[in-house]
Amino acid sequence: MIELYESQRAMRNVRKAAMQRGVVAVLDVGSSKIACLVLRFDGTDGPMPDDGVGSLAGQTGFRVIGAATTRSRGVRFGEIAAMGETERAIRTAVQAAQRMAGIRVDHVIACFSGAEPRSYGLAGRVEIAGTMVTEQDVARVLSACDPPDIGVGREVLHAQPVNFALDHRSGLNDPRGQIGQELACDMHMLTCNAQAIQNLAHCVKRCDLELAGLASSAYVSGSAALVEDEQELGAACIDMGGGATGVSIFMKKHMIYADTVPMGGDHVTGDISMGLQIPMAMAERIKTFHGGVVATGMDDREMIEISGDTGDWHHDRRQVSRAELIGIMRPRVEEILEEVRACLDAAGFDHMPSQQIVLTGGASQIPGLDGLASRILGSQVRLGRPMRVHGLPQAATGPNFASAVGMCLFAAHPQDEWWDFEIPVDKYPVRSLKRALHWFRENW
Amino acid sequence: MRQMMRREPPVTRPEPQVNHPDPAPSRLKYRLERLMLTPLFRVTLRVGLPLVIGFGATTWYFSYDSNREALMGQIAELRDAFETRPEFMVNLMAVDGAGDAVASDIRALLPLEFPISSFDLDLDAMRETVVALDAVETAQLRIRQGGVLQVEVVERVPAVLWRSGAGLQLLDASGVRVGPAQARAERPDLPVIAGPGAEAHVDEALALFDAAAPLAGRLRGLERVGERRWDVVLDRAQRIELPSRNAVQALERVLAMDEAVDMLARDIAAVDLRLPRRPTLRLRGGAVEDYWRIKALETGEQQQ
Fold it and tell me: What is the pTM of this model?
């Protein structure tokens, strides 16, 4: 499995270099917009206080100094569909953001929502070498997790150890230094299509940028929109984007499941466009100004002007009631939520101790969505906005920037992944100096 | 009926939907802007480029002799115009504290053609020149208001005459030459010293002259013997030979003896105190014979 993570390790090194330079950009490659934030790490992030987290949930070490958004036309269902268009959009966003920041950005951390993510739960078990658990034991137990058959053309996006167990004690965060005999670990692995990653990497490279990390949009928006106790007790984050809806389940501050429903707000817009026979831009406008999912009697009387430019006067001067609009939107939203429900059921969300559901993302701004969602998904539904980070412009604080803000947190404090741990000694190349050193230390 | 219909204002139609791409910076523009945001590049552009251009232009301009000369000439002209302003001109020299002879010497030594700019006067070098004169002890040169070069001189005061092989010299109290003297009679008020190495011990000589005040009428001078000690030379070819150390005390002793027995008035050639414990008198030839005769008379020895 070692060679599998070479690229991930390389990206970690790039991220380290970027942190040393102090400037890194995060890129949210979404289906409806591409957002770029430029972060400056000023090193004010002191040690975490012992009693809980510091101010701003400990996210004080960085500051957003540049932000830009542009329309994304080359991305469909959260995957890159047109390379040229995506590259131009990334270029536009990065240029505007770094112009606002007044500094050149070389390293970028990107996230995307599509590419058929699949979650796997891995378990490993190993006898520890000495009496105390060392880093090498952790490395060995991680490599003892038998990798699932992820299929051809798939790539591991996240591989996070979520739980350690030592003998009969489970739920350990950090087993190092503890005394025991048998160390077990549970790991959550998220895979996605390799081509999507390659396409994104190529687009980023074409913009003269270096990729310093990749993340799943569902994961990062969950880490931004869920508050700390929700992450601890268990919650699901539904990131309703333009082309895809990400589902991520958090428990004990670890993501334990993620999936994507390839439907989002763009499909609602498309339904409106088809149903009312208007262009997409107009449909989007009508959706954002008059959209909703719960019709009341008053909505029958509220008429919406539909202008057009076909030249047919009667066609261009139609009016629809808001109830009709809701009648078009609601089935599609229901369909999306049903799909999300299916995802959650497949993940066994019913068996979670806390069944909090947080809706975020651009499409979660539809009025009345929380009521509809609570009927489909469960009673504990709230609308989530991303947490506040330093220097974030007011325009970028809405729920549609949940994954961009989550990327900031991911860039500042990435969770340890498999490739962040030590490589077990027996997996090293034969000539490795470290292996010789280890042997030396063991024997003398 | 038609007139009752509401007149719609002419609708400004949006442009027909053409599939043209979103505005995006071209790759070249993007790269250029990134380059301009690079701090090092910006510093180079802001500082380095003007520096290179300025340096290059200057070098190119001065690579032609004519340009260089023109600039140098202009600088010299400006400098000249500034230096010859009337505020900086010196019109005359005043020598204070020197006698006429010394003053004329100083004027001869400093050949200045007035008026002259004060920038052209090197006062330090001129002071060195003036001080190099024997007769000048110290000198102060400054440019006074009104364009006057003020030379304030303190002359050396001659204390002794020194007779050497080269002739008579005037020395001051510290033994520095003041100037030549034509004849002894020129300065009858000064005592005379002689002998090689005498000029280095003028202070001792002066102390001896002070002590020999009772002999003033008879004193001819002091002679340095063997560059070691002094002889007091009196008239009638009498000498008082003093030791090299404590010469003044020895001289006072001689004077006391003289006062007691009127020794120096007698017919003796020299009083030798080179060994201070054993003063010795040297009689002249005739006196020795007289002495022997008197001794013979006293002892009743047979006359020959």
Answer: 0.65
